[in-house]
Write a structure and sequence with these properties.
The chain is of the alpha/beta class. 38% of the residues lie in helices and 18% in strands. The protein is built from eleven helices and 13 strands. It has helices at residues 14-25, 59-62, 82-106, 141-157, 179-187, 206-218, 236-246, 258-265, 270-273, 281-284, 295-302; strands at 5-9, 29-34, 44-50, 55-56, 66-69, 112-118, 130-131, 163-168, 170-173, 176-177, 203-205, 224-228, 277-278. It is globular. The termini are far apart. 40% of the residues are buried.
């Protein structure tokens, strides 16, 4: 029997690499969309695409049974100038529409189209409300960007293809993601809470996130948005104290004042100075069980 194939956009990124390993272990072949020429490996096939030029090697889509769409500019990499904001939205919207155009033209019937989204959908604000998948998007840049991203996925749903949107929290992984920037500071006892420290930080371990994607492949009843984050009321202060403890000390530095971060990062400082609580009930109702539910254990695994 031929192995089923999963096409991943953004497959060479943090989540994509871990997901590829999991899918290969589950007996799939994996195709990866890449901007540069790469050599195929055992059960991994590379195809070129260029979203800006709206170019894609169509065979990638034609041979896929599932598409997992992770591609998009990193929101935390550069200051949010008007140009950068446009690039963040376009990279998500235009890449989805490029995949859509091939699926529609070829009348390709996928088993499912599973896309990343983010809890940024609920906005860069602080508050006590616990956001569920029915909470409307916030009327700010993050909310708008995520809404545009998800709206573009609806074009694919309209082709009678099962679509799933994984609204992801802060992903914890070894030497990668946002921990890559934090760990050197905390290791040398220079870690501190940010702003008031009371902003929530809904997090998820990389292994659990990959398992959620795997669940979305397996369960035909899964469709629409799912929050992928632990609802344990972790604040930035709790997160910082826990990370410091794992390096064997108590935080001695005062909180980094908000105005310093605002000066250094501009509007992008909202990523670290704000955070909402989110509910994980919907994903858990599918039978999914998080392996990492305790922050300290999750962080220990990443260090």
């Amino acid at each position: 029997m031929m192995k089923k194939n999963v096409l991943i956009s953004g497959g060479s990124g943090f989540v994509g690499r871990h997901l590829t390993t999991l899918l290969l272990a589950k007996g799939f072949t994996v195709s990866i969309l890449s901007r540069s020429e790469k050599q195929n490996k055992e059960n991994i096939f590379y195809y070129k695409w260029d979203v800006a030029k709206q170019f894609i090697e169509e065979e990638a889509v034609l041979k896929a049974d599932y598409i997992i769409h992770l591609a998009g500019e990193n929101i935390g990499e550069k200051r949010w100038t008007a140009k950068r904001k446009a690039a963040i939205i376009d990279s998500r919207e235009q890449s989805t529409l490029l995949l859509y155009s091939v699926i529609k033209k070829s009348n390709k019937q996928l088993d499912a189209f599973i896309s990343a989204s983010a809890i940024g959908y609920y906005g860069a604000i602080n508050g006590q409300e616990i956001c569920t998948e029915t909470t409307p998007p916030e009327n700010d840049f993050l909310g708008y960007a995520c809404q545009k991203w998800e709206d573009s996925i609806d074009f694919i749903e309209n082709l009678n293809i099962r679509t799933v949107k994984i609204r992801t929290g802060l992903v914890l992984g070894e030497n990668d993601g946002f921990l890559k920037k934090l760990i050197p500071l905390f290791k040398y006892r220079l870690g501190a809470a940010l702003g008031t420290g009371q902003q929530y930080m809904p997090w998820i371990h990389i292994d659990d996130l990959c398992e959620i994607y795997w669940q979305a492949i397996q369960k035909n009843e899964m469709s629409g948005p799912y929050n992928a984050a632990i609802n344990d009321n972790t604040t930035n202060e709790i997160f910082s104290k826990t990370l410091a403890q794992l390096f064997g000390y108590h935080i001695w530095l005062p909180n980094v004042p908000a105005f310093i971060l605002e000066t250094a990062l501009g509007e992008m400082s909202k990523i670290v100075l704000t955070g909402r609580r989110v509910s994980s009930d919907k994903i858990e109702q599918t039978g999914f069980k998080f392996k990492y539910t305790i922050l300290k254990e999750a962080l220990k695994d990443c260090i």
